[in-house]
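It is worth pausing here to work through a concrete case rather than discussing structure prediction in the abstract. The textbook approach is simple: state the sequence, then state the predicted structure, then interpret. We follow exactly that order.
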Amino acid sequence: MAKFQLNKQTKKQVLKHLAILAGAVAICIIFSLVLFQRILHPGIWNMLLLTVIQLELFMYLGIRFFKSVDPDAPGAIKKTIVRLILFYITVLLIAFALFLAIFTWHFWRAGAPFSEFIPNLVNTEIRSFLTAAGVGFALGALFFFYTQWADTVKRMQKLKEEKLIFQYETLKTQVNPHFLFNSLNTLSSLVNSNPELSDKFIHKLSAVYRYVLENQEKDLVPLADEMEFVKDFFYLQKIRDGEKIELKIDFGETGTAKIIPVSLQMLVENAIKHNAATRKDPLLITIHFEGMDKLVVRNDLRQRMQLAASSKIGLKNLNERCKLILKRDVEIQETEDEFVVKVPLKLNEQSK
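Step two, the predicted structure:
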């Protein structure tokens, strides 16, 4: 499978470079017919080489310049315009340096006197270079922005698919027969033994379902809201499991940080579901910051002899959504005694 994916990636790169070469040939044919009224002329190969280089530079530098631009971040339009200007200046300078090197090489091979270097460069070659650069920049820009647009459409489609999977998994996890049965069973025993606690239990249960339904279609939610949701969810689990589980939240203020919705709850639920716990040796789940843009969920690792049923795609789905929305991966670390998941956060510009 890995070999197939490598071959597929290599094939994609080869096709991209062939498309660039074909585009360069088409540009040179059009340019030659307009300026020289014929396709073959003394400067055709230099023109083709420079055009290929310009198109390759557009693709390579374009990805480098615009890869880290977040269209949803504050001031994204201003940053894009500034980077676009720097991008064009950089490509122009590199293309001119290459053009000058090629011209110097051919001038030296022709054996012309050095006194003619500057006049030939200024009177003839510079004009051709600027014309070719202008045409190349215009067509190259169209080619580059088309590929960027196509890539954005593809990413949005993938994000939509991941969101649908996430919504399904979230609802399946929260509104499932086991969770509902356990909650109702606990509530039934509380109604007679502790009416006051049963009333609080009902409010917490309704808050959990309300949060899921209100946030299932959102990409990000305030971390403060997610933490309140996790506390409500854990409260319901705590009523049922008593002293077998403990949740330690090792921070106070959440600031303006945002997080993928229902991500922390999923990690807390996975810890409870897949690890053994007793009153003598309770399961400890800890949530704390690592830096300012990462939240860590760690728990004791004591895997049950018979694991509870799991879709096994929860962490994978969370990681895919983090990569698509936050451009970062979820970090997973497992030792003999501990299981740790580090979830990326999004910080507002003012909080960085």
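Step three, interpretation. The first strand starts at residue 221 and ends at 222. The chain has nine helices and seven strands.
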